[in-house]
């Protein structure tokens, strides 16, 4: 068996997330079906993260195994042709052969996400479904300062979905930065792993800080409460992007 690592990009709007779902289309299903059409082999696609409905990816790492060798470049080209023919909003940016013990999920040392807020009164046209529009002016500096309350090792129960299947709410958040770029506010988060809805929940509360509805102390209190009921706001999925997965030796 040969293991192929893929780097995937997708627009999350048409999909029920990465993982296969019985009630709608998924990125995993799209790539697995394309692989079967190209190779004649049924594969199981594993990814560094399982994104939710409507969440996008700029460079998701994934892998599957094939019983015979393929040229990685030709494989990526063939997969893209099948995905395009089927009308999918998924692209294979790169394919390469990796060691048999390399695993997209379990070998991953870190994951990074970006959340995009369009801070403007006018409705979104080009970015519809690709950013969260907030009409009220946001103080990105106050958001960044408050975000530092969440950096480090904490119990993130308040920022965890009630449907989260992680064994523990304890996570170490390596970085949570907020910056303004014109009429956009960008939130960047990095950690070894995240809880279900953690990034969206943190962004939602930071948006309250940016609008002057919460203070830095309010955010710290929500974290300390370890209670999902104390969450101020869960940001919508359309502004969230999986940006990067990091592996040993890279």
Strand percentage = 25-35%
Oligomerization status of the protein chains: single chain
Structural class: alpha+beta
Radius of gyration: 19 Å
- If classified by CATH, what would the architecture of the largest domain be? 2-Layer Sandwich
- Name the CATH class of the largest domain: Alpha Beta
SSE inventory with pairings:
Layout: E1 2-10, H1 27-39, E2 46-47, E3 56-66, H2 72-85, E4 90-98, E5 110-118, E6 132-133, H3 140-147, E7 152-155, E8 170-181, E9 184-191, H4 198-210, H5 216-225, E10 240-246
Parallel strand pairs: 3-10, 5-6
Antiparallel strand pairs: 1-3, 1-4, 2-3, 5-9, 5-10, 7-8, 8-9
Helix pairs in contact: 1-2, 3-4, 3-5
Structure description:
This protein is an alpha+beta fold and 250 residues long. It folds into two domains: 2-98, Alpha-Beta Plaits; 110-246, Alpha-Beta Plaits, CATH 3.30.70.660. Helices cover 23% and strands 29% of the residues. It is built from five helices and ten strands, in the order βαββαβββαβββααβ. The chain has helices at residues 27-39, 72-85, 140-147, 198-210, 216-225; strands at 2-10, 46-47, 56-66, 90-98, 110-118, 132-133, 152-155, 170-181, 184-191, 240-246. The chain starts with a strand and ends with a strand.
